[in-house]
Amino acid sequence: MVRLNINGKTHDVDVEPNTPLLWAIREQVGLTGTKYGCGIAQCGACTVHIDGTPIRSCSVPASAVAGRKITTIEGLAAGGTLTKVQKAWVEHDVPQCGYCQSGMIMAAAALLKAKPKPTDADIDAAMTNICRCGTFQEVRKAIHAAAKA
Ligand code: FES
Ligand code: FES
Q: What is the pLDDT of residue 78?
C-alpha cells in the first residue's frame, strides 16, 4: 500500500512499491488524463508535476513520491478555472489527435512557472515531449501566448 497525495486528495493505493506512478494514477485512482506512450521516459505523454516539477510518471516508482504533492492534468485547473496555458491551448487550437497533449500542457505549465517569458530556445529545451501529429509549432505559439496573457 502506498499513500499518494494527488490533486489535493489522499489516496491509499494497493500497488507494489516499484509500480510506476503512472499506473497508480490511471488504474488505481482512475485519473486517465495522464497517458502511456513509451514507458521509458522518452515521450512525455505521462508527465505530471511532483511538488511543481515535471516528471515522467512511467519511470518513477509510486513509493518514491509518497507524501509529495502530485498534480495531474485533472488538477491543473484548480476550482474549474482554466489556467493561462489551457486557455492558450484552446485559443490556438493546438491538439490534433490529442494523445500527447496533457503531457505537453503539464510540461508547458512547469516551464512558464520557472520562466514566465520563455524564449524559443527555452521552449525547445524544456519541451522534449514527442507529438506524432507534429503540433510543435502550435505548442510554441500557445506557450508564447500564455506568457503574454
Ligand atoms: S510514457 Fe512516460 S515518457 Fe513516454
Ligand atoms: S496531438 Fe496527436 S500525438 Fe500529439
A: 81
